[in-house]
Design a protein that fits this description.
This protein is mainly β. It has a 5-stranded mixed sheet, with no helix packed on it. Strands 3-6 form a two-stranded antiparallel sheet. A hairpin with a 2-residue loop joins strand 1 and strand 2. The longest helix is centred in the N-terminal third of the chain and has 7 residues. It is globular, with a radius of gyration of 14 Å.
Length: 71
């Protein structure tokens, strides 16, 4: 088991961050990932191993527009 965004998540053994994102059907281009409190570069997603007990935070980027909010 790992901790994924603060919740216990069952995995079937060690996997990479890239593998986890694929399994979760998450577009790796639109997220930032923290592994045990370290931000991981996208170029390292497929080489960073996630083991049992690790903590993963996945943050989605949300697009917006350039309009200002009314005051």
């Amino acid at each position: 088991n790992i901790v994924l965004n603060g919740e216990t998540y069952k995995t079937d053994g060690p996997l990479t961050i890239g593998g986890l994102l694929f399994h979760l059907d998450i577009d790796r281009r639109r997220v930032a990932v923290e592994h045990n409190m370290n931000v991981i570069k996208k170029s390292n997603y497929d080489s960073t191993i996630v083991n049992s007990g690790d903590a993963i935070e996945v943050v989605n980027f949300i697009g917006g527009d350039n309009r200002t909010m009314p005051e």
